């Protein structure tokens, strides 16, 4: 069983993550995790926090001489901004009451922001200072998820599975649509998206997205958008149709919906498919020479294949062997420089919502978080299916399964 837990507050000493269930012998170095953390900090529309933090991971346990030990991997990401927030976020009881004037950081936050967890969290835990809610509800926590996802990504890469993430839309601006996987050069798209300040592989759309973000910034407003993650080289048979909580599409949807700000998830052409007749939606099945653009890392040239991938690589909660394609819709961020109306928790008087430091648009950075969550769910599904206390055991089980598929069902 593969699982992870995170801990830490936005302005606390740091973030911690514990990953349990990794096989022994997986090559893992801090730089591979740091690379993903750096990617999470880059994107047009980012706020000042990304200029302050330089996220780097410290591996505390579970790895020796660059290889996992099979024991839990514990990691820490320090918050550089903690020094300025030490009095506010100190775990120790304060000596005397905190001053209410002077440093604004010391003042209680009593004006909940519409669209954030502020009010719901304060009611749930009986807080009269929203700081107790927003510090953990903050998307800063996703840095720990990216660290866990980077570990999962290394496991997938050792089995020939890779990930591509890119932005599909920001605000009203949409990139040129792509087919669900047939005929798309995903590796080229990944390079183009990574070179873009908004992680969009369509250069014309990317320019328009940046203009839209700049216009929103000038208005004191925020923008959301849609991102896509594609997993390549995934073998058929991950997930299961036998129980609701083992369906892989449901697990992917839950993982993506858990990202702060995400309000909708689709697999393949999910929302478009709901408007079409079945004859236009489902992917026909063929057998014979597999087109080169659909080969997996170890594929032979003959077997079952599909001329389309509108299902997004999943049928009945089980992977089909095609690229797994998932999209997430992210709402505009809740913190507005021109705040909406709210009610003060203590006085019950109408007022304007509090303003915390925030991005104008987090969609380009959310791509990296979404990649991490997809990587985690797929790695979890691989470990569920194939097991193994060592990477050699796991890889051997995967190879035996692929040989069996090639022998009984055709190449995968």
- Report the C-alpha radius of gyration, rounded: 23 Å
Strand content: 15-25%
Main sheet: strands, sense, barrel: 5 strands, antiparallel
CATH C-level name = Alpha Beta
In quaternary terms, these chains amount to: single chain
Q: How many domains is the backbone divided into?
A: 1
Number of alpha- plus pi-helical segments: 13
Helix fraction? Answer: 25-40%
Strand order of the largest sheet: 8-7-9-15-10
Q: Quickly give the structural class.
A: alpha+beta
Reading the helices and strands in chain order gives: EEHHEEEEHHHHEEHHEHEHHEEEEEEEHH
Q: What would you say the CATH architecture is?
A: 4-Layer Sandwich
Mean pLDDT: 90
Which stretches are low in confidence, meaning pLDDT under 50 for 5 or more residues running? 295-299
Distance linking N and C termini: 25 Å
- How many β-strand runs? 17
Q: What's the CATH topology label?
A: Chorismate synthase, AroC fold
Shape: globular
At the fourth level of CATH, the homologous superfamily is: Chorismate synthase AroC
EC number: 4.2.3.5
Cofactor: FMNH2
Function: This reaction introduces a second double bond into the aromatic ring system.
GO molecular function, one term: chorismate synthase activity
Quick recap:
34% of the residues lie in helices and 19% in strands.
Walk me through what this model shows.
It contains 13 helices and 17 strands. It is of the alpha+beta class and 412 residues long. The chain has one domain: 4-Layer Sandwich (Chorismate synthase, AroC fold), CATH 3.60.150. The strands form 6 sheets. A 5-stranded antiparallel β-sheet has the order 8-7-9-15-10. Strand 1 and strand 2 form a beta hairpin. The longest helix has 24 residues. About 1% of the residues have low confidence.
């Amino acid at each position: 069983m593969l699982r992870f837990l995170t801990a830490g507050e936005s302005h606390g000493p740091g973030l911690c993550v514990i990953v349990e269930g990794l096989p022994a012998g997986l090559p893992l170095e801090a730089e591979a995790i740091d690379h993903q953390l750096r990617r999470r900090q880059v994107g047009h529309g980012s706020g000042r926090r990304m200029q302050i933090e330089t996220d780097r991971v410290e591996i505390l346990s579970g790895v020796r001489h660059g290889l996992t030990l099979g024991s839990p991997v514990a990691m820490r990401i320090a918050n550089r901004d903690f020094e300025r927030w030490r009095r506010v976020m100190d775990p120790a009881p304060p000596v005397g009451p905190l001053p209410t004037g002077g440093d604004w950081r010391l003042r209680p936050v009593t004006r909940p922001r519409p669209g954030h967890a502020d009010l719901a969290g304060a009611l749930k835990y009986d807080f009269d200072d929203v700081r107790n809610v927003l510090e953990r509800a903050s998307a800063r926590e996703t840095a720990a998820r990216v660290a866990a996802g980077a570990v999962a990504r290394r496991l997938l890469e050792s089995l020939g599975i890779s990930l591509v993430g890119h932005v599909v839309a920001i605000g009203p601006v949409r990139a040129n649509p792509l087919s669900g996987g047939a005929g798309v050069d995903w590796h080229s798209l990944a390079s183009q998206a990574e070179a873009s300040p908004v992680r969009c592989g369509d250069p014309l759309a990317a320019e328009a997205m940046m203009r839209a973000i700049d216009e929103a910034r000038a208005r004191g407003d925020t923008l959301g958008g849609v991102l896509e993650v594609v997993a390549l080289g995934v073998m058929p048979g991950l997930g299961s149709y036998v129980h609701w909580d083992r369906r892989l599409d449901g697990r992917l949807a839950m993982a993506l919906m858990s990202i702060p700000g995400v309000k909708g998830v689709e697999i393949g052409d999910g929302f478009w498919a709901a408007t079409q007749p079945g004859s236009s939606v489902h992917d026909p099945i063929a057998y014979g020479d597999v087109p080169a653009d659909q080969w997996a890392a170890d594929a032979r040239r003959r077997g079952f294949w599909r001329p389309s991938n509108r299902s997004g690589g999943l049928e009945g909660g089980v992977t089909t062997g095609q690229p797994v394609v998932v999209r997430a819709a992210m709402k505009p961020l809740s913190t507005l420089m021109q705040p909406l109306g709210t009610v003060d928790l203590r006085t019950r008087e109408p007022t304007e919502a509090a303003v915390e430091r925030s991005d104008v648009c987090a969609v380009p950075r959310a791509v990296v978080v979404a990649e991490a969550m997809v990587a985690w769910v797929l790695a979890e599904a691989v470990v569920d299916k194939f097991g193994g206390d060592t990477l050699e055991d796991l890889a051997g089980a995967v190879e035996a399964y692929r040989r069996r598929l090639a022998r009984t069902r055709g190449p995968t």
